[in-house]
């Protein structure tokens, strides 16, 4: 059949109609998604930017009915818990990912660990928060002290861990085996080959995964509701209840107090700017690694 005959056939015209319908549906879906995204961003910018001020970083959260105030206690609490979670997760996640990619490869234990890690990736964060609370309350016998900055950090670390493990595993598997064989053939110990060859080759992807994990836990609210709980006052004591930005935003946004709702928009703006900064950083690092 000639091309001209095929283009005049009913089969070709039916495929053209189906293609046009699918393109139209796809365009409508994109427009619907963009409308909600633009509406959310506009609401955040119009209400969040005016709330950004020096007081937001230098004053603690006010009581209901009080004017002014800031979110200093929540900002410091969030930074401490996210920082602690990052310090816990980074070595554990990188070493676990290294075992999966370099030592375990495709044995039974590795397949089981990867399966469990994938389940943790999609596990509800409130469930992880409950696990951390039960671990501190019953496992460690801390009773009332189970609601603390430490339990919040552990919950956030468990949320972040699967991201670091998965990206480390995937990035190390992308390193060509020829590099490993050349290093080992020259007498380099296997552990030294991993540090000197594999980590250097995969460092961009591994760092990107680490930053994405930090961005994910910075806005997590659910695990902190049952662990750190919150604190109306400034505190750096990790063994006590600790304020956090997501929890304060949740409380203030549902309040009838206008000042609280303004501060909630300011806190939401801070988290958005932080996540945006992390995403730009990861793209810059990934582009530099190419």
Alpha-carbon distance between the termini? 47 Å
User: What's the total helix number?
Assistant: 12
Task: Give me the count of strands.
Answer: 0
- Look up the CATH topology of the largest domain: MetI-like fold
Please state roughly what percent of the residues sit in beta strands, choosing from under 5%, 5-15%, 15-25%, 25-35%, 35-45% or over 45%: under 5%
Ranges where pLDDT stays below 50 over 5 or more residues in a row are none
**Radius of gyration from CA coordinates:** 25 Å
Helix/strand order: HHHHHHHHHHHH
Give the class-level CATH name of the largest domain: Mainly Alpha
Work out the count of structural domains: 2
Query: What is the average of the pLDDT values?
Result: 87
Structure description:
With 290 residues, the chain is mainly alpha-helical. It has two domains: 9-51; 54-288, MetI-like fold (Orthogonal Bundle), CATH 1.10.3720.10. It has helices spanning 3-7, 10-48, 54-58, 72-104, 108-121, 125-139, 149-173, 177-185, 190-218, 222-225, 245-253, 258-289. The protein starts with a helix and ends with a helix.
